[in-house]
Amino acid sequence: MHANDDEYSSAQNLSVVFKFFHANFSTLYVNTNGLVSFLSGVSTYTSEPFPGIGSLIVLAPFWADVDIRYCNSSCNIWYRESDDLSIINKATSEIQQYFPDMEHFIASWTYIATWYNVPFYGASAVGLTKRNTFQCVLITNGLYAFVIFNYNKIEWTTGTASGGNSDTGLDGTPAQVGFNMGDQSHYYSVEGSRTSDILNLTNLSNVKYPGKFLFRVDLEEIEPPDIDWCIDSNCQNGGTCVDGHFDYTCLCTVLHNGSYCESDIDWCIDSKCQNDGTCIDGLFDHTCLCPVSHTGVYCESDIDFCELHDISCGNGGTCVDGLFDYSCACPLTHTGYHCETGTAKDKLLG
């Protein structure tokens, strides 16, 4: 495609009919801003949430503000119809691999659009070093229709006219990824669209192949492959695998934590032990080993040694609680640990 901003190709007449949702199309447009569209080209540069984009009928591998005016030969947008046998065989293989109920599917036609090393609108000299490379592949056998989104490199999400940073191409209104039929009811939005998460497309997938997304598009609803992410789960220690859109998560027992439930829970991390009590990690909770001066579940109470030993100091003595023990405060007439011994004054008084 020639150097431009916000433009689109001329109408591309297809040699086959491509079914998208409930409609058949024989013409498409490749748009600079990361869209393949039917019926008309699209110059809108800020992504909008599906399905609220009016009557636009689009495949959106990465709808964002692409500008290829100033990158010369270092970037481009290529598109072509192909019935090359090697490409047809690869397309057939991928559909059969990721859609098991399509084991007899034989592709007869593909259309490939590639956005190569494209920068964003409003990029500074630093921003121009941030580039994206992604691809949209249409596949059909004349009856069933599929689309593949491939992501080789995603380093920015937003042009400056959409609120993005001129150095990073981030923030503002990030790219929309998915499909829209233009009727307010038939659409599909890839999780993370129009959020900063869309920057991670090269690490995500709906077929366990980082940077690759496949969809069947000829039904009333877009159909991703039915991938069971839990088949190769690494959940450990009795963790339960929970299937997700692009991956799985592990639901851990009360005894473990971590991404894969690989770590024992250290109950002492949030220990409530007080007064220099020592936390002892347990199976379901922690206990506090108290110093001799304190007691209680959390060592929260001073030990009253007078009560602990049920002390009665003799001869009018008073028990005095101490840090680690007790003592008896004796009257002048007595002495000894428990005021058990009379003094000379006691004898004098006697």
UniProtKB/TrEMBL annotation:
The record's disulfide annotation reads C252-C261, C290-C299, C330-C339
What's the superkingdom here?
Eukaryota
Residues in NIDO domain copies: 61-220
Q: Which PROSITE patterns match?
A: ASX_HYDROXYL, EGF_1, EGF_3, NIDO
Annotated GO biological process:
cell-matrix adhesion
Domain EGF-like: from-to ranges: 226-262, 264-300, 302-340
**What one GO molecular function would you report for this record?**
calcium ion binding
- Locate the transmembrane regions by residue number: none
Query: What keyword terms does UniProt attach to this protein?
Result: Disulfide bond, EGF-like domain, Repeat
Matches recorded under Pfam families: hEGF, NIDO
- Report the protein name in the record: Alpha-tectorin
